[in-house]
Amino acid sequence: MYNSQLPTDGSTAALGHSGLFNQKAERHGNERIRVLLKSFGLRTSLIRLKVIDALLSAAESDRSLGVRGVHSHLLDLDIPLSFLSVREVLKRLCSEGVITLNADKSYSLHPQAAAVLHGE
Q1: How far apart are CA 97 and CA 76, in angstroms?
Q2: In whole angstroms, what is the distance from residue 46 CA to residue 37 CA?
Q3: Complete DSSP assignment for the chain
Q4: Can you give the C-alpha Rg of the chain in angstroms?
Q5: What span, in angstroms and rounded, lies between the C-alpha atoms of 23 and 13?
Q6: For the chain, what percent of residues have pLDDT higher than 70?
Q7: What is the pLDDT of residues 74-88, one digit of tens each?
Q8: Which of 8, 42, 65, 98 has a beta carbon 3.0–4.6 Å from 37's, enabling a disulfide?
Q9: Is the four-CA dihedral 92, 96, 100, 101 of positive or negative sign?
Q10: N- to C-terminal Cα distance for the chain?
Q11: Do 103 and 93 contact (CB within 8 A), yes or no?
Q12: pLDDT of res. 14
């Protein structure tokens, strides 16, 4: 489809092909989270994917996140979810055994869920 705002000099830089590659890489990264959710009998939703991804990112950085931390992380990524939505998703994932609520009110992946993610 023709877009009058894009240059017509033959340059493909303005077409955002790097964004296309990033979407493919993100989709591939989310595939393991999709498998995880399916193994726990849960449907995949964007908010579940993003919440689990936030927890995984925090764990890789040796950080722990509570509800506010997850919500702030998602807002930093320009994912406009309400605090209540994030809290409800965390509670649901916790009740299904995907994540655990730690004594310091932070959340982490349940060891069984971590085993699924790592293919064990």
Answers
A1: 27
A2: 12
A3: ---TTS--SS--GGGTHHHHHHHHHHHHHHHHHHHHHHHTT----HHHHHHHHHHHHHHHTT--B-HHHHHHHHHHTT----HHHHHHHHHHHHHTTSEEE-TTS-EEE-HHHHHHHTT-
A4: 18
A5: 16
A6: 75
A7: 999 898 899 999 999
A8: 42
A9: positive
A10: 46
A11: no
A12: 43
Q: For 15-70, how does the pLDDT look when each residue is reduced to its tens digit (9 = 90+)?
A: 444 343 334 334 456 899 999 999 999 999 999 999 999 999 999 999 999 999 99
| Maximum CA extent, the chain | 59
Give the amino acid at 102.
N
CB-CB contact of 98 with 36 (8 Å): yes
pTM: 0.73
Looking at residue 113, its pLDDT comes to: 93
The HSE-up count of residue 119 (CA atoms within 13 Å, CB side) is 2
Which amino acid appears at position 42 of this protein?
L
Which residues partner with 99 through β-bridges?
109
